[in-house]
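Schema walk-through. Below, the input block comes first and the output block second. Nothing else is stored per chain. Lengths vary across the set, and this one has 291 residues.
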Amino acid sequence: MTQPTTVRRALPALDLLGTALMLAEQGIPALPLRPGKVPFRNCPACTGNACGGRPNMKSPGPCRCPDVCHAWAAATTNPSVLGSARWVSAWRQAAAVAYHPGGANLTVVDLDHAAAVAWARTNLPATQTVATTRGEHWIYQGAMRSANGVRDGVDIKSTMSYARWLRPGTGTITALPDVVRALAVKEPATVRPAPQPVTVPVSAGGGDCPHRSPAYLERGIAMAEQRITQAAAAVHITVYRTFLAVLSAHGRCSCLTEAHIARLFTAAQAKGETARHCTDAWTNARTALGI
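--- output ---
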């Protein structure tokens, strides 16, 4: 994905509009943002969604408002709308251009600080990146459910969300991986019975292993153990998401053994999780990934 020139605060309205039109030409729905990186407020007729909402919002309705209403749902690729008199008035007050990633079949992993960037470089497949004020945006091809705070300093922006357009990215966009999708998955509720002995489930593998060396798997298991061990809060969901990440990388080949799974269970139980929860979390993770 190619991106236009960097958008800076207080650019003339025509520069912001020009950037939005360039995005629209690439099939990326654009909208203006006010200072503070926030969308424009709804017009009086749309306040509180009294109009019924836009057709592409979660609650469809008859709204055909010509103003910049309904936040991310206002994003459009229609140059006639972007350049209309009402929208030009908004561009004159705007501070930046935003876009709707899901509307362009994209997902943005918003990394808000250096530690989050370091985590992504270790755990996520390489893709196109865009530097932000405090971190980076990692952009993948494919849409998914948006979710904030999936881990410290990490938000996912895709459907029903917007991301600020900053500058041309570096690198090549790659397909949205399961490990990113797994971040937004909420673990199904399970009843947590009294502790019981560990029963390690059978590995989901059996196919040919595509990994280059055993060291790749060993590193992944060690990192998963560390992630569980270092969880300061939300241990329950951290265990589930860690299991998802391991299975997304190794669950369909023959390299993942019962010994590896036992290591993960042991790390989880050391943080207070029960053997039953470990088994349930592992089963739920496999089901979520279709293994």
